[in-house]
Design brief:
By secondary structure, the protein is α+β, with helices and mostly antiparallel strands. It has a single domain, classed as Alpha-Beta Plaits. The protein contains four helices and four strands. It starts with 9 loop residues before the first strand and ends with a helix.
């Protein structure tokens, strides 16, 4: 995929909550089982995390050039969920759908973070 020629037009947003004591384990598991396939298919991927009290919320935003491209990855219903095998073990509630939004305006650097994705990227690039 030549990401430089494709512009994101659609954001696909998934949300899930874990118990706080399992959040680090779920972050690592979901990266291996769910985020890596997204990285191979989407134009871009962001993983957000908020620790609040006894729960941790994860938000995954993947960026796509079209609904058709997203459907090639997600199936006939792009708002449908592709649960990971161990999601029932980790997630407090299994999400029933994802949100899909058209990107109207995008400005500036929206990347960042110092989480799992950055640590994985650093380990790959440093040899």
């Amino acid at each position: 995929m030549n990401d430089e020629l494709k512009r994101p037009r659609i954001a696909r947003i998934w949300r899930g909550r874990t118990r706080r004591e399992r959040a680090d384990e779920y972050e690592a598991y979901s990266y291996e089982a769910g985020i890596k396939p997204l990285i191979d298919n989407a134009i871009g991927v962001q993983v957000l995390r908020e620790d609040k009290g006894e729960e941790t919320e994860f938000v995954v935003i993947s960026y796509w050039e079209s609904i058709e491209a997203m459907s090639r990855f997600a199936g006939d219903d792009p708002t449908g969920i592709r649960h990971l095998e161990r999601d029932p073990e980790f997630l407090i509630d299994l999400p029933q759908h994802v949100q899909t939004l058209r990107i109207i305006v995008s400005h500036g650097d929206t990347g960042g973070g110092d989480g799992m994705l950055d640590r994985c990227f650093q380990s790959v690039t440093s040899g």
